[in-house]
Each structure stands twice: as C-alpha cells, then as structure tokens.
Amino acid sequence: MTAAPFSNGTPSVGKASPLGKVFIGIAGIIGAGKTTLAAALGQHLGLDVHYEPVIDNEYLDDFYRETRRYAFAMQIYLLNRRFQQHQEIIWRGRGGVQDRTIYEDAIFAKTLRDMDLMDPRDYETYVSLFRNLSNFMCRPNFIIYLEVTPENSMERIRERNRGCETGITVEYLRRLYDGYEEFLEQISRLIPVLRVRWDEYWEVERLAEAITQEYQRGSFLREVAQRA
Question: Would residue 32 count as lying in a domain?
C-alpha cells in the first residue's frame, strides 16, 4: 500500500530563493509530515512546491479496496505522474520542493511484492521501467529524509483520519521504515541526503537554516540535529 497527502500536485510559486534554483526532495514514510514541511520550506525559501498527486488519482480507491488486484496499476500510475512532475521541475528551471521523490516509489513496490500483494513478474517490469526512466532524469540537489518511528507515523495517520488510510497497519509501516533504511544507504551514494529526526517538529526557520548550512557543505548522508 502507498498513500499520499491530499493535494492536486500544482506547484505554488514563491519569492526568489536564498538557495537559488535548488531542487529539494522530501522523503519519508506515510504520515511523516512531508507535505507540511514541503509547504513551509517552499514559503520560507521562496521555492515552488510540488505536491504528491492524490485528488485526481484514478486508482486510489480501487487500490485500497483490492490492493493485490490494483497494486501494479497503482505503482505504474504514480511512477508516471512523479516522472512528469520531476521533469517539470527541471524544465521550469526555477528549482522547487517535491513532496515525495520518484526514487521512493521503488520502496513501496518492493514492499508490495514482499507482502505478496504484487506479482514478482509485475515488480520486475516496474523496476525495468523505472531504470529506463531514470536515464532521462536529472537528480535533485539533495533529499531531506524525515525520520519518524512507525508508531508515531501510525498516530499521525490516525489523527488526520483519512478514510482511505484506515487499512494501514503498524507492521506495514515498519516494513516501509526498514525499506527506507536500505534506500538511504543506496541513494546517498548518488544524491546528498540530509537526515532529520522528525518525531518532534522543528521550527521551520531553524530547519531551513540548518538545511542551508549542510547543503553548502556538500556532504552526503548527514544527520541534521536540532539544537536547543
């Protein structure tokens, strides 16, 4: 299963960014707080915000009702939409903040396969398509990973009370969390990753300042610690 915040994917235009035309990806498991942070950072840094497509997702209800039947179609749909969004950020040439990156989709697809909710043959087709698309993609300048425990993510999902997410379990979130750990080890070899402990929210100004400092250092997998 995969879920997304309720947004139509339309970018919001901000003022000139102190980071220039930087492309920031926000990553994290369901309920981590990606949309809230993306919107706040976009406003604070003067960057367009590109939200995850949900309102016009033609497969969402079917996917949650019959996951095994619609898993492949759902993941292909999301891959296509995210590829389009990713490319638009590059083509617009203004930079931006993306609410969930295209790279994370593979975590959800693999989890579906491991849970016997996606046919292994479909999964291999998905992976092959992703690899082909990746040949045409410019990478984000860096990715911010919001680290949240599965238990806290579950609590946030319950608090926002979205009907389509009622079937999400802590066990599923734990699988995703483990998948993200593996993902971070791999993606940080290609794209700088700033890891932020997000069980407790930061002040946006403080996080934006920390992000700016760490980005300018150009480090790869680095944990950003909140200071009192």
Answer: yes
More confident position, 9 or 81: 81
The set of long-range contacts for 73-82, using a CB threshold of 8 Å and a minimum separation of 24, is 74/2, 75/2, 75/105, 75/108, 75/109, 75/112, 75/118, 75/126, 76/126, 76/129, 78/2, 78/53, 78/105, 79/105, 79/126, 79/129, 79/130, 79/133, 81/9, 81/53, 82/53
17 within a domain of the structure (yes/no): no
Q: Taking 60 as the threshold, does the pLDDT of residue 225 lie above it?
A: no
* CATH code for the domain in which residue 45 is found: 3.40.50.300
Mean pLDDT for all residues in the chain = 85
pLDDT of residue 6: 34
Range of the domain at 107: 23-224
Q: Which of 48, 56, 61, 99 is catalytic?
A: 99
- How far apart are the C-alpha atoms of 138 and 159, rounded to whole Å? 36
Convert 17-32 to b/e letters by CB count within 10 Å (16 or more is b). Answer: bebeebbbbbbbbbbb
Active-site annotation holds for 61: no
For residue 155, is it within any domain?
Answer: yes
Structural domain tally of the chain?
1
Instruction: List pLDDT tens digits, range 94-106.
Output: 999 999 999 999 9
pLDDT at 184 > cutoff 80:
yes
pLDDT at 27 over 70: yes
